[in-house]
Design a protein that fits this description.
The chain is built from one helix and three strands, in the order αβββ. It has a three-stranded antiparallel β-sheet with strand order 1-2-3, with no helix packed on it. Strand 1 and strand 2 form a beta hairpin. Helix content is 35%, strand content 25%. The radius of gyration is 21 Å and the shape is elongated. It is α+β, with helices and mostly antiparallel strands.
Length: 69
């Protein structure tokens, strides 16, 4: 009975901890990052642009890189 109680408590605590991590990250899936950059804002003669890597499953973005004017 003690083992079962410890196992149940461990499972509940693990689930709560995992839920906290998901809540902090804002996503409930493993990101599937694109291999190529997407141009988010094209540069002009006077204004810098930007490019970044996007997740195909949500709106998350990483590696935002400026593109010089």
């Amino acid at each position: 009975m003690k083992r079962l109680t410890k196992a149940l408590i461990g499972a509940v605590l693990g689930t709560v901890a995992l839920g906290s991590v998901v809540a902090l990250s804002g996503c409930e899936h493993k990101h599937d990052w694109a291999t190529d950059y997407t141009v988010d804002k094209a540069p002009t003669c006077t204004v810098d642009g930007s490019k970044s890597i996007h997740c195909s499953g949500c709106d998350e973005v990483k590696d935002v890189t400026p593109i010089p004017a």
